[in-house]
Amino acid sequence: MAERILKPDYRGGGIVNLMASIAGRFGCRTGYAQLRALPAAALRRHRTIVLVVLDGLGYQYLTSRGAGSFLHRHLKACLTSGFPTTTSSCVATFATGAAAERHGITGWFTHLPELGAVSTILFARPRVGGPAFGQVGIDFRDILLTGSLFDRLQAESFVITQRSIAHSDFSRANRGNATVLSYSNLGGFTRRIVSAVRSARGETFISAYWPQIDHLCHHRGVGHSAVTRHFRELDQSMERLSARLAGTGAVMLVTADHGLVDTPRSRFIDLADHPLLSECLSLPLCGEPRLAYCYVRPDKAGQFKRYVRGRLRYCCDLRSRAQLVRRGYYGTGKADPRFAGRVGDYILVMKPGWCIKDFLPNEKSFFLKANHGGVTPQEMYVPLIVVEP
Questions:
Q1: CATH architecture of 265-371
Q2: What are the E-state strand segments in the chain?
Q3: What is the pLDDT of residue 294?
């Protein structure tokens, strides 16, 4: 019998529902239930909502390694991430208010059948390399399957993100008509938030994104002292920010896109070491190293399933696209017709600590010390922190 895997709560306990509450506060609907822990009615007394997304800050990290911190003291609820538990898909959820079935961003490598390309979706370019889609006349708003939530809110909107990605194709499509403010360091991040709050002329929504926890975990490991030091610095910055927002009528909602798990080198599966599996595939692996999408040649489907269930059963569970869609992993509504092509025929759901990767001929092999995208509690559960200055 197949092992049960964690699924996002789209009916009132996930990040998609948090966005439904924010949308409801500003006069629009997303098609998803509002967050049980924080419905729109609870936000109406605040003129300004500041949503701070701390990339990689998992609920379990906050409640264990961050216990007693300023952010932990203001913890209100545990939410589920999206599916997969990865930045590209979850940032799209924060920007559109929709789950992956409707926005269509399904992982770091997303297959775009309409372009005949496997893409590195955050960079909006083909995985194999070459110019970004925008440089060859492709509008990323046509790749994002639903429009930006910022364009529907009855509020002035700001997006605060790091300078290196502030004007990328992915960022422009997701932010819609919101005003973008960029920064290059943590001090600039908090100053931009304060500036946006103080310049607001009426009801205002501010979405601010900080990437460094995720970056450090990837390259050092979740338990590394560098991650601990940065969390403490970030926590102190959030406490000072709260003090600076006192009296402005703002509420600060702090959450994350996902958490991470350590992935030791000994638990990496290199597809090149499995030629009988590789020959079954019609495309490179897509999705994430911890949730890999396999596009399988029809005449090799039997061989593929036998190989995974026999040779790789110790490190992954096999699911079909139909199973995961039917059971509501990518959302509970009506999927966009183009969504199905962006998820493989089969999905390798990796067990704790395990990853699978392939490398194109022009790609250098590399292995990160921590990853996300999978379905462990460390990856799936994120905090909701509510600070009312």
A1: 2-Layer Sandwich (3.30)
A2: 48-54, 75-80, 109-112, 117-120, 125-126, 156-162, 179-183, 204-210, 250-255, 261-262, 268-270, 286-288, 291-294, 316-320, 346-350, 355-357, 370-371, 381-387
A3: 98
